[in-house]
Amino acid sequence: MEKTIVITGLAQGMGRHVALMLASAGYRIAGFDMDREGLATLENELHAAGAECYLTELDITDRPGILHFRDEVLERFGQVGTVLSNVGIGFFGPFEEVALERALHCLEINVIGAAAIFQAFLPHMRANGRGRLIAMSSLVGVIPFPFESIYTASKFAIEGLVESIKYEVEPFGIQVALVEPAQVSTQFAAKIHQLPPEGSAYRERAARFIRRDNDLIKTATTPEEAARRIVAIVRATRPKLHNQVDFMSSFFLFLNWLLPKWARDKILLNHMNIQV
Fold first, then answer.
1. Which residues contact 77 (CB under 8 A, 6 or more apart)?
2. What does the alpha-carbon distance between residue 66 and residue 57 come to, in Å, rounded to a whole number?
3. Using an 8 Å Cβ cutoff, are 57 and 36 in contact?
4. Least-confidence region, from 56-65, 114-123, 180-189, 242-251
5. pLDDT exceeds cutoff 70 at 185
6. Domain segments of the chain: what residues?
C-alpha cells in the first residue's frame, strides 16, 4: 500500500499521535484541521522526524476547499494510499430539548465531512486500482447511548455509509474499515457535557450520566494507546471492517451480540447510572 496517508482532524489527540507514529514508520503525512497552532507544532515535529508532510488549515464543511486540498496533495505526492476520516464533534443533551440547527451542524461535520473527503480521493484510488478508506466511528455507532441521540445518529450513519461504500469500491481494489472506540481519555466528552436547564425533566438523570462518564474517562484508553491500534489498522494487509481500540468497546459489542435486547439495555442503564 502506498505510504502516503491523508488524515483529517490531526492537530490534536488521536489524529496527531497517528500522524507522528506513521511518520516514524516512513509515511508521508497530508492533512488538515482548524487548529492553526496545533498544525504548526505538529508540522515542526514531523519535520524534526524527517517526514514529508503537507498540512493546512481547512474546515471540513468547505467542499471546494477539500477538492483544492486533494489537488495539492496529489500534486505534491503523486499517490495517496489511505484516507483516515478523523474529524468529528460531539453532541450531548436530551433529544426533546435539542436545538435541531445545532444537530444539523453535527451531522454535517461527522457524516458529510467523512463523505466529502472519501469522495474527493475515490477517483484517484479507483484509477490506481488500490486504496484504503478508514472512518472513525464509535461504540455508539452500534449501541445507542441515551443523551447522545444526535451523536449516536451521526455514528450510525457513518457505519451505514462505510458498509454501503464497501460493496461499491471493493471491485476496484479499495478497502474500507471502521474504528469504533468506546472512550478515549481526551477532553472530547468534557467539552460537550452540559446539564439541561433547571426544571428540565431530564436534568437529574443527565447529571448522573455526566458524573459516570467523567469517572470512566479517568481510566479510559489514552490517545497514544488508541493511536497504536489505528496505526495497526492502517498498516494491516487486509484490515477488518469493524475494529475496536479498547476493552470497553470490545466487551459491550460482545454483549450486544450475545444477549437479548432487554438484558443489554439493563446493563447499559446500570453502567451509566441512569436507571429510573
1. 4, 28, 30, 52, 54
2. 11
3. yes
4. 180-189
5. no
6. 4-271
**HEC sequence for the chain:** CCCEEEEECCCCHHHHHHHHHHHHCCCEEEEEECCHHHHHHHHHHHHHCCCCEEEEECCCCCHHHHHHHHHHHHHHHCCCCEEEECCCCCCCCCHHHCCHHHHHHHHHHHHHHHHHHHHHHHHHHHHHCCEEEEEECCHHHCCCCCCCHHHHHHHHHHHHHHHHHHHHHHHHCEEEEEECCCCECCCHHHHHCCCCCCCCCCHHHHHHHHHHHHHHHHCCECHHHHHHHHHHHHHCCCCCCEECCCHHHHHHHHHHHHCCHHHHHHHHHHHCCCCC
Q: What is the pLDDT of residues 14-42, one digit of tens each?
A: 999 999 999 999 999 999 999 999 999 99
CA separation (Å) from 100 to 136, 149, 161, 248?
Answer: 23, 12, 22, 30
The single-letter code of the amino acid at 246 is D
CATH superfamily of 4-271: NAD(P)-binding Rossmann-like Domain (3.40.50.720)
The residue written with cell numbers 467523512 in the block is 114
> For 45-65, what is each residue's pLDDT tens digit?
999 999 999 999 999 999 999
Model pLDDT for residues 61-108, shown as the tens digit of each residue = 999 999 999 999 999 999 999 999 999 999 999 999 999 999 999 999
Residue 187 confidence class, pLDDT cut points 50, 70, 90:
low
Q: What are phi and psi of 237, to 5 degrees?
A: -65, -45
